[in-house]
Design goal:
With 389 residues, this protein is an alpha+beta fold. Among the domains are: 7-44 and 204-264 and 337-387, NAD(P)-binding Rossmann-like Domain (Rossmann fold); 101-186, no CATH class. Helices cover 32% and strands 25% of the residues. It contains twelve helices and 22 strands. The longest helix has 23 residues, at 146-168. It is globular, with a radius of gyration of 23 Å. The structure holds flavin-adenine dinucleotide (FAD).
Length: 389
């Protein structure tokens, strides 16, 4: 008996949900979506906690893009709440704890050095590089003015190095000098974390947006279903439930897992999230506060800033702890550790996948890369353009 589906999509995150919608709506295909978790949305999933606060289960997600096609496409499935994210670094100092905007900018400079010194520094920086410019600390270090070189050292030490060590579990000498060189100082008073044209949060949350994306008569969604149990890749054949499947397969899970990790696991960093609920309207000063010098956690996010939820007297925060991913049950691979060796290992899995012309690897796990949501959305739309040519 033939399968009743033209296409199989594995994963109901941003990559999978957009492909499923496009193939069903634009391509008039019958699409089966298998999702291992018991919810849609992938890592952008949000839900209400026990106290009624809307939280992001897998880390804070803020939507931002310069891509009009992506924004227009997603806007069919959600209204947006206008929101511009701001992040501060919380650091100890002799006068108590300071909070300075990151990326480090002219306002951060005032907080650290005081109005007078900051004004004099700003004048020299703007004369050298121009206003509203992002200048790397490498460029600043090469400036003959000793105060400017000192500024680069301050930003490296207080904003970058300890935070990066926590995030990636590295010693300073292990941190890629190219990454260090790219750390920016923003010669601006603009303290927004992103400068994209479109920025916001889905009005009702991400999960309803994903539910609408997947709500189409030609999409069948099976939650709590691991594709590993349904899909077999055998020589050059794809089997679904033990029978040959000839349609398009879009796989958005981890590339190594698709081949039972036969060449070894692809290394990732994972995160432990600790949620705390407090009896207050707000608990901290901004949506996200980075701890760039001390503490074991990297950052704390307070969701009510992001979601705009009006709920007096109660708020939920989340502390993020980064560590190596081991592949243990329930652990989520969050950040691919991109280096030559790991890319080569990924290449072996990609070569395996390329033996199956109907199989497409898409998404942050399947492609072993970090992508923001809008980048994944753009890639999903582009893949469907190709498939539906
Ligand atoms: C902590 C954190 C914060 C982030 N914040 C932002 C942000 O603020 N803004 C932004 O734009 N981006 C952010 N991102 C990036 C964003 O999460 C990704 O761009 C997005 O999740 C990519 O979607 P995806 O579909 O590729 O992957 P995912 O969201 O991971 O979806 C993949 C889905 O496939 C399922 N799956 C995997 N294997 C199988 C299988 N064998 N069978 C069935 N289902 C399977 C998974 O359960 C999952 O639901 C953040 C990422 C992290 C880690």
């Amino acid at each position: 008996m033939d399968h009743p589906f033209d296409c199989l999509v594995i994963g109901a995150g941003m990559a999978g949900a957009i492909c499923a919608r496009e193939l069903a709506e634009r391509g008039r295909k019958k699409v089966l979506v298998l999702e291992r978790r018991n919810h849609v949305g992938g890592n952008a999933y949000d839900c209400f906690d026990q106290t009624g606060v809307l939280i992001h289960q897998y880390g804070p997600h803020i939507f931002h893009t310069n891509d009009k096609r992506v924004f227009d496409f997603l806007s069919r499935f959600t209204h947006w709440r206008s929101y511009e994210h701001q992040v501060v670094a919380n650091i100890p100092s002799q006068e108590g704890r300071l909070e300075l905007p990151v990326p480090f900018n002219l306002i951060s400079m005032e907080v650290v050095f005081g109005k007078e010194k900051a004004a004099s520094l700003a004048k020299r920086l703007i004369a050298a590089y121009g206003r509203e410019k992002k200048v790397t600390i490498l460029e600043l270090r090469q400036n003959p003015d000793p105060d400017i070189a000192d500024l680069a050292r301050y930003v490296y030490e207080h904003v970058f190095v300890h935070y990066t060590m926590k995030q990636w579990g590295q010693r300073p000498e292990e941190i890629d000098p190219n990454t260090t060189a790219r750390v920016p100082v923003f010669l601006s008073e603009d303290s927004r974390y992103f400068q994209d044209v479109y920025q916001g949060m889905p009005q009702e949350g991400y999960t309803p947006m994903f539910e609408k994306l997947l709500d189409h008569p030609d999409i069948t969604l099976e939650l709590g279903t691991d594709a590993e149990k349904r899909l077999t890749l055998e020589e050059a054949r794809v089997l679904l439930d033990g029978r040959p499947f000839h349609g398009t397969v879009i796989y958005t899970g981890a590339a190594d897992e698709l081949f039972s990790c036969k060449y070894g696991r692809l290394p990732y960093r994972t995160l432990d999230f600790r949620f705390e609920t407090h009896p207050a309207d707000f608990w901290q000063s901004h949506g996200t506060v980075n701890y760039t010098v001390d503490q074991d956690y990297t950052r704390i996010t307070e969701f009510k800033y992001l979601t705009g939820q009006e709920l007096p007297g109660v708020t939920t925060i989340m502390k993020e702890y980064s560590r190596a991913y081991t592949g243990a049950e329930g652990e989520v691979p969050y950040y691919a550790i991109i280096n030559e060796e790991n890319n080569a290992l990924y290449g072996r899995y990609k070569a395996e996948a390329d033996r199956f012309p109907q199989l497409h690897l898409l998404g942050r796990l399947a492609e072993y890369k970090y992508y923001n949501m809008d980048a994944i959305a753009a890639r999903a739309l582009a893949l469907c353009d190709d498939l539906l040519k």
